[in-house]
Amino acid sequence: MIICILVIAAVLMLQTVRMFSGKIFLQRFLAGLILIVPYIFVPSQAHYLRISFDKLNVTLFASAVMAMIAIISTGLVVRNSEHFKLYPQLKPQQWTTKLVTLNALSWSGYLIGYEILLRGYLLFSCMLEFSFPISMLVNLVIYGIANLHRSEREFLLSIPFGAILCYSVYVTGNVWPAVFGHIVVALSNDYFSYKASKKILAWK
Fold first, then answer.
1. Which of 4, 30, 69, 148 has its CA 20 to 30 A from that of 15?
2. Would the pTM of this model clear 0.90, i.e. be above it?
C-alpha cells in the first residue's frame, strides 16, 4: 500500500512540474513508466494480468459493460459547461489523424500502468489479507486521494466508478475490464468534451 501511495504521489508531482506543463504526451508516457514500478520490483502478484479461458466470456462481458458505463458517465459529466475548459487536455487548432492516434496511444499506455497498479497490484495484494469489501474500501480511498485535484463533480463520480472497476476485477479475476473501461472513459471524455466545446464556442 505504501508503494502504491508513493507511486501515485510521484505521478501527481510529475503533472505539476512546470517543465512538463503542456507536454501532455510526455507526461502520460513518463507517468505510465512510473506506475508500473511496483510490478517490476514485486512481480509475484502478476496473476491479475492473466485471463483464464474459463472466465474469458465473463471478462469480455464485463469489459463491454464497463465500456457502456464509461460512455454514459462521460456523456453526463460534459454537460457541465465548465468541463470543456479542462478537457480534452490536448487543445490543437485542428485534430489530425496523427494527433488522434497519439492521444489514444498515450492515454492507453498511461491508464494500463494506472490500472495495473491500483486495481491490479493494490487490490489483489489487499485481498490476500482482507475481505473484498475492505480491500475495495482501501482502493477507493487511495483512488479518491489521486482524484482530489480534479473538479468536484469529477471527484464525486470517480468514487462509484472506482467501485464498479474494483467489482469487475473481482468478478473476472483479472485487471483487463478495468483497463478497458478506464481507457474508454478517457477517450470518450475527450470526444464529448471536444464536441461540447465546439458548440459552446460557436454559440458565443
1. 69
2. no
